[in-house]
Amino acid sequence: xxxxxxxxILRGLANGDLVWEVPGQQVFTQFDERTGKPVNIGLPTxxxxxxxxxxxxxxxxxxRQKLDFWEITPAGRAQIKTLTSGASVSV
Length: 91
Fold this sequence. Notes:
This protein has helices at residues 4-14, 43-51, 74-85; strands at residues 18-21, 27-32, 37-42, 55-58, 69-72. The chain contains three helices and five strands; from the N terminus they run αβββαββα. 35% of the residues lie in helices and 26% in strands.
């Protein structure tokens, strides 16, 4: 089950927020569509969520000069539904 911050990250991704790489740092920024404000997220938090199968990192080769970002997976969407309904679902 996602914990508080993880739940907020998943909920934001499900609602269209973006989580983008901050070049040269071990953090990513989640842009909150609702408030219009960015929030930094440490890489270990995102890696733990990826290990649980809730999000996936989309990487580009350095030659393409594009930033990495994270997307919610179907398992992550299922967790959001589980948390909203109060039911327990294993993924």
